[in-house]
Design goal:
Layout lengths: L35 E4 L2 E8 L6 E7 L4 E7 L3 E7 L2 E3 L11 E4 L4 E6 L7 E7 L3 E4 L7 E5 L1 H15 L4 H4 L4
Antiparallel strand pairs: 1-2, 2-3, 3-9, 4-8, 4-10, 5-7, 5-9, 6-8, 10-11
Bound molecules: fe (ii) ion.
The site of fe (ii) ion has 5 residues, from β4.
Length: 174
């Protein structure tokens, strides 16, 4: 869950388990257990937890009509759409398979998978820094905070609940 009250957090790893080396991870879009529930009709598969910048990268999946609430980015975002149609309520374009998007820091937006999307949306997002959820779309105030740490915690909890080896997530920590 997103953070609404703050304490110091760490990645929870012993120093000898923390690596700066390159790595690969294999997602599995067809394995339901690997999808971490995030919002109504929205899931993610983690790829990278950047505990240096607070960023992260994920594969995001959403059902037609589902949404991720309005949020503000403190860092850049890169996205690449693999399946389905989605948009931000604040923009007039529609992302489709093959659409790449770059978002500057300082942008607030509301992600919706279009009602007429022919299939669930699947997109990769590389997020360099935390995001701040807002309590309303225009001139909103703080509602919750999300970053690589909070998503690591959420992913570990889900992996334990569904019987996946949570240690797989440690290898994604940088
Ligand atoms: Fe965003």
């Amino acid at each position: 869950m997103p953070i609404v009250a703050f304490n110091s957090v760490t990645d929870g790893l012993e120093p000898h388990r923390r690596s700066r080396a390159h790595f690969i991870t294999n997602t599995d879009l067809e394995d339901d257990r690997r999808w971490v529930p995030y919002a109504n009709g929205v899931w993610f598969q983690p790829c990278w937890f950047n505990v240096t910048s607070g960023g992260f990268s994920v594969v995001l999946k959403g059902l037609p009509g589902a949404m991720v609430g309005t949020h503000y980015h403190v860092g850049t975002v890169h996205g690449y759409t693999i399946r389905g149609h989605w948009r931000y309520l604040e923009h007039d374009w529609i992302a489709k398979p093959g659409t790449y998007i770059y978002e500057p820091a300082g942008e607030a937006h509301t992600l919706v998978i279009t009602e007429d999307s022919p299939e669930p949306m699947v997109a990769v997002f590389v997020v360099e820094g935390g995001l701040i959820f807002l309590d309303r779309g225009v001139n909103g105030s703080f509602a919750a905070y999300e970053d690589g740490f909070s998503l690591l915690e959420l992913s570990r909890k889900h992996y334990r609940e569904v019987g996946l080896e949570a240690g797989q997530l440690d290898a994604m920590v940088r």
